[in-house]
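Checked the freezer inventory, then went back to the computational side. Two predictions to log before the end of the day. The first one is the construct we discussed on Monday; recording sequence and tokens without edits.
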Amino acid sequence: MRAVRLTVATAVATVAALTAVTGCTEKSDAKSSGPGAIKVTATDDSCKVSATSFPAGHVELAVENKGSRVTEVEILFPDDRIVSERENIGPGTKHTLTAEVKSGAYRIACIPGMKGKGHRQDVKATGGKAVKRDPRLDKAVAAYRQYVQAQADETLPKVTTFTDAVRKGDLDAAKKAYATSRIGWERTEPVAEFFGDIDPKVDVRADGLKAGQKWTGWHRLEKALWKDKKLGKTEKALATRLDKDLADWQQRVGKAEITPTSMANGAKELLDEVATGKVTGEEERYSHTDLVDFKANVEGAEKAYDLLKPVAAENDPALAKELDKQFAALDTLLDKYRKDKTSYDFTSYDKVAEADQKELSDAVNALAEPLSKLAAAVVSK
């Protein structure tokens, strides 16, 4: 579940944790903004943009949060599909968002509290020339598109195993299949969120529901299994609804707009997912299967990085060396919580001591800092 659906209260409460994980990079990233960067000033009640028209191609937003709440900045298509985004920008911090855009109309949104549509400014990218791109990056995008589609294809039978157990009223079998059914989704969640309407149907938590929204998806069934301990007519219908919504995702995910910068920014978003949901234990609050999601998020981020690495390592060798080091360290740390490195049978997160949770948080912090620089490294010349 993406961090944007935190309640305002939860978002504010996690600012300190987010600062520990990502805050230092927000300030340092802003210092690297180029002279042509578009300045975005976010407050609690406005989103000011220094230029509403700019050349198509690689666009850099120099974001400063002058509000009192953690915020998110998004570049959106007019129909609200996400081009690129940067979440968890703490009060008084700065950040740089690098994205690739074609000519056309867009919106830049600042979302204080990371909930709702926020404050928006219409902008336009001008010029009809395509971005001049290293051919290796085209290959990376093509390979990543195949990876994303494969994850969706492989998820559906695993979900069917889970939902069949729900429909049969088999609590034990459904619990056993639950976490595994989510792995492909968690690996590729930023791409799924491109469409906007699928994620709230399948991965929303109770505290992320909008007014009048019916609670559907994995976490509604998670509550039924671990807290309510019953599977009735409603839950069986929700299982069938989950099958349908994820089949829709499978059919549409291959049509998502994917660029090298969206891959890089998506990798960072997956680390934000870990910071705001998995490390805190909020994501899987009933099943405590957070470490399965944690591992899947890291795997998805690492896949995007591996595909972009040939270009990133050439443009910024020191960054690639640091990313290799921190990915390896985090993978090794996660292995402490499973006996078999080929399985996803992880320790229940409620059994992980507070000191160990802090160790995990520190490892995420160490990776998030260099990973936030990947998009800039990919477009460096």
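The second is the one RB wanted added to the comparison set:
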Amino acid sequence: MSVSRRAARTPLRENAVRKRLVPYWLLLPGILWLLVFFAAPLVYQASTSVQTGSLEEGFKVTWHFSTYWDALSAYYPQFLRSVLYAATATVLCLLLGYPLAYLIAFRAGRWRNLLMILVIAPFFTSFLIRTLAWKTILSDGGPVVGVLGSLHVLDVTAHLGITEGQRVLATPLAVVCGLTYNFLPFMILPLYTSLERIDGRLHEAAGDLYARPVTTFRKVTFPLSMPGVVAGTLLTFIPAAGDYINAELLGSTDQKMIGNVVQSQFLRVLDYPTAAALSFILMAAILAMVTVYIRTSGTEDLV
């Protein structure tokens, strides 16, 4: 009797083991993808950052860690500029995206799908073409500059140091405008997802308790939408900090970001160790800022 029971338990145990292994088998393709296209290049870049040599003589791993300090000492203005531009664009995206996401989630009605299509429509156009379009929009003889000049807005922005004279192109304002436009959908989509999950009966309950609309937003809507705010700011700030297209096309040499330096070191100067070190410094800085931001924001969904 005991032998038959053991024989019956064996297939059951095998089935249980197979069921426990199913999730790992499903994760295997993704893990292999990360190992081949993320971990391996990361290890290779780490090796490159501690090499010395030249393109003619070849590069060798000499554990030259001072490359990191030399790169940071030489290009820290570009680092600070990248963080400043990315942070400014992120704040502008939040100020512009939150009202639009709120409108789509609670007030759009039958127009909701159309508005969502309009939000993601820029993704169907090349990033480069969209940025070049802003170069035309902000051109010196364009209507935007003409209107801003007639309203004396450019006098104020020039005094603040974000434009130069009566032109917008090749100034910090142009670069920030390009970053804000290109990454605005990355802010709107997570905000909309977070706002759309909020139960409308909570707003009705706040109204029944004689809460004003401003109080309802401050006490109910905004706290419940914090996961979307955190996700949107991260999805906007991280790629904006490493962007180089907007600074290349809309800025000048005085508006170069760290992405432009990395591109130049890799493709023009051919100083691969410095380029790799700059990449790792940027990645470490962003990782540290993101970690601090997530923990201070108190969003448990993302921690």
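For RB: The longest strand covers residues 51-54. DSSP finds 13 helices and two strands in the chain. Let me know if you want it refolded.
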